Amino acid sequence: MKTLTIILTFFFAFSSIAQENISKKEYTATRINKPPKIDGVLDDEIWKAIPELGDFVMMNPEDGTPERNTHKTTAKIAYDDTAIYIAVKLYDNEPHRILRQFSQRDNLNAQFDWIGVIFNTYNNDVNETKFLVSSSGTLADATSENGRDDWSWSTVYQAEISFDDKGWNAEFKIPYAALRFPEKPEQLWGLQFFRRIQHLNETYSWNYVNRNNGYESQYVGLLKGIKNITPPVRLSFYPFTAINQEVFNGDSETTFSAGMDVKYGISDSFTLDATLIPDFGQAKFDDVSLNLGPFEQIFSENRQFFTEGTEIFNKGNLFYSRRIGGAPSTYRTVDDNLSDDEIVTDNPEDVKLLNSIKVSGRTKDGLGVGVFNSVTQKTEATIKNTSTGETRKVVTEPLANYSVLVLDQQFGNNSSISLINTNVTRNGHFRDANVSAVAFDINNKENSFNFSGQGTVSQVLDTNGDKAGFAQRFSVNRIKGRFRYGIWNDIVNKSYNINDLGVSQRTNFNNYGFRLSYENFEPTEKLNKYRINGGFGHERRLIPNVFVTNNFWVNFFAVTKNRLSFGGNINGRGQLKDYFEPRTEGRFLLRDGNIAGNIWISTDFRKKYAWEASVNVRRWFTTNQNAIFLRFEPRYRFSDNFTVIYEIENWYGNNRLGYVDKLDNDDIVIAQRDQMNLSNNITASYNFNNKQAINLSFRNFWALALYNKDDRYFKLENNGELTDINYDTDENNHNTNFNIWNLDLTYNWRFAPGSEAVLLYRQQIFNQDEFADAGLLVSFDNLFNQPIQHTFSLKIVYFLDYNNAKQWLKKSNS
Predict the structure, then answer these.
(1) 677/589 Cα distance (integer angstroms)
(2) Which residues are within 8 A (CB) of 381 and not within 5 positions of it... i.e. 6 or more apart?
């Protein structure tokens, strides 16, 4: 921490708060007394008297080229006491070429044009709120910090579109309740517009964006003229009710649940979000795979409360929300303390979440504050004595509290310093954990260099005592120009542990290296964009200070003018001392060096039929090991309503070395195995319009691990090398055939702003056995001999806004 303090002091001394002189367009909004009808048709009288803004410039692929005369964009902005109103005219001399594929809220991975308006209500060149509407009427909104967009964030606003012989039109109504802004006589906001013309493969902005330097958020214009508005009471409720029925192996269970999410604007800067008695039964299934490695498999977060508006809690990468409501602490060790006549009759796999709250916001002086807290229920396993018939309960997870606190101070040149603390407190004699960190992200005055780093201290208190650990990272990167480079150093000691509320899979290392890249910002004769980057890494053990390995990589990426993308990479490493595979402190497996090459290609998604493909081949230097990975993803757009995407992935590796056992005499057994993974995925969507859709998500993952093909089992020596060992494969058969089948079919209907009904059918099948030499047909026959779990679920969420209710009551009483 002393080193970190010196570094921070040095860079604060050399980081001026003066901003680069960036040209900013200005526009003055007009106050109106009567709001326009939000229908996308710009024929309201108020729009005729309001001045327009225009003169957009190209952002991509060219840099700053004036807009085409045939594709001009103009906009007008008005306001009253309740909302901002925006009218945009998007000219196109060939309206029939405008792509109009339907998609649902926040899904921008579709073939359509779009127009977006961006507000920076504190005019700090860092934090933005984005509102988009597509040429098919799809709405999308996000918050952003230094170009890092959070599309999981959602608010309630209106936007409608229309078409005519000159192009298309968009009309927005953005209530003040959707924004956070200071209470003062006159507002001064950052303002930006972006327009995407998909069939031309061009993106335009109102205020010029210099992609060669800094972040997009620095290059906004100014919105003036909004006077005497008052931040409204930001209070909304999302009550929900759900019914679920599960059918499995002849048993059926029906459950009802109800709860509510609440959003409350504590002040003009801060918002409270809470979920009471939550139900996450409709969250997307996890992409589970066969995991033979020493580390846990990490899944993405699919629960909306934990993905929406959580960007400030991700500072320092110390918060992994899947820890909350995950497996109980002692779920896997219940069998360890059973007597001979006891069996486990019930052992819940997940902990029930009781409630969660989060408070977040940023003051006008740039101080961001995030407070998060969750409480989970006490969880118990049931154990039955087969002799007496008596049962007893064993606590596998006590009542637990999870909390996160983040203080993030922003200052000049898009820089910040953050203090982060995470804490897990469990009731009783279990395990408590606390993690504290200081992180900094500092740009110099010219925004040409970035200095970032973090110092973290972890502390775990359990029945074995109190253990403290530390980690620190530091990097310097050039962030301006076509040619960029950087260096880094990461240090983690042996006792560092953040896994109660974060993820830390490797410890006790001291790694450093450098990276460099070259990227064009103007198209060439044949390419719209290309980028080359590479680097070198050196890895060491921290204690003792011993060499682990060296590695390198080179990547290439390019896009042609016809939207054909392609690229590849070469990467490799030297001999590796693998300290993690043996699962024993201080022991390592000596692995051979290898080199790999990858090529990939992606065709033009604007066409009805498109595809992506990639091939990766890895070869070890001195051992007979090889691996190959193939991926193919065709997609077909039958119409603007219906799209199907199929993906197949196949990976095969022969003579792989991995841990299988630790014997009573502490000998570590390493085995040679052949492995294969085959994954089939289908996603399909039929959109009736931009508010109703049927979606299919299917995944089958099949994996094999064949150990006893050549009866190659080894004893791991202290020097990391292997010697043959006799190993009883009859008693210890590690061959594995792993097969999992998931299918989700949903009907989504956004029946009112902020309100939604979701009908879900889910099907799950799983099988794992030792028949690793079985073929495809036999494996699937064994899979479908297993009982199928069927889930039927209906969930309805309704949006209630305090301001709308107050206006409705006024009207009803008048």
Answers:
(1) 24
(2) 331, 334, 344, 346, 347, 348, 393, 394, 396
| Token digits of residue 741 | 């089948």
* 428 Rama class: left (phi>0) / alpha (psi -120 to 50) / beta: left
3-state secondary structure 191-217: EEEEEEEHHHCEEEECCCCCCCECCHH
Tokens read off for 283: 């969250």
What is the helix (H) or strand (E) element at residue 451, kind and residue range? Answer: strand 449-462
Whole-number Å distance between alpha carbons of 745 and 748? 10
Q: What angle do CA 645, 101, 163 make, to 5 degrees?
A: 175
* Residues 383, 439: Cα–Cα separation, whole Å: 46
pLDDT of residue 813: 65
Instruction: Please give the Cα distance from 630 to 611 (Å, whole number).
Output: 14
User: Residue 149 to residues 366, 367, 386, 483: CA-CA distances in angstroms?
Assistant: 18, 19, 57, 25
Q: What tokens appear for 629 in the block?
A: 């990975």
- CA-CA distance, 80 to 175, in Å (whole number)? 10
Distance, in Å, from the CA atom of 306 to the CA atom of 799, rounded to the nearest integer, reads 19
| pLDDT for res 802 | 85
Give burial (CB, 10 Å; 0-12/13-18/19+) of 296.
exposed
Task: Report phi then psi at 361, rounded to 5.
Answer: 165, 180
Q: How far apart are CA 301 and CA 150, in angstroms?
A: 14
Q: What token pair was written down for 456?
A: 């973290």
pTM: 0.90
**Residue-level pLDDT at 810:** 67
- Residue written as token pair 């085995």: 671
Two structure tokens written together for 137? 């009427």
Instruction: Please check whether residue 526 is in contact with residue 560, taking contact to mean a CB–CB distance below 8 angstroms.
Output: yes
Q: Which pLDDT score is estimated for 812? A: 64
> In which residue ranges of the chain is pLDDT below 70?
1-22, 709-711, 808-814
Q: Helix and strand tally (H, E) in the chain?
A: 5, 46
Q: What is the dihedral of CA 105, 106, 107, 108, to 10 degrees?
A: 130
Q: Quote the pLDDT of residue 13.
A: 44
Structure token pair of residue 126: 């860092």
Q: How far apart are CA 356 and CA 689, in angstroms?
A: 34
Domains, the chain, in order of start with CATH, read: 2-224 (2.60.40.1190)
pLDDT of residue 232: 87
Question: 185 vs 127, 224, 230, 258, 503, CA distance in Å?
Answer: 21, 12, 9, 43, 46
Beta strands in 574-721 (DSSP E): 576-578, 589-591, 594-602, 609-620, 626-637, 642-662, 668-687, 692-706, 713-716
Provide the 3-class DSSP secondary structure of residue 243: strand
519-542 residues labelled b (16+ CB within 10 A) or e (exposed)? bbbebeeeebbbeebbbebebbbb
CA distance 314 to 783: 39
DSSP string, 395-440: EEE-SEEEEEEEEEEEETTTEEEEEEEEEEEESSSS-EEEEEEEEE
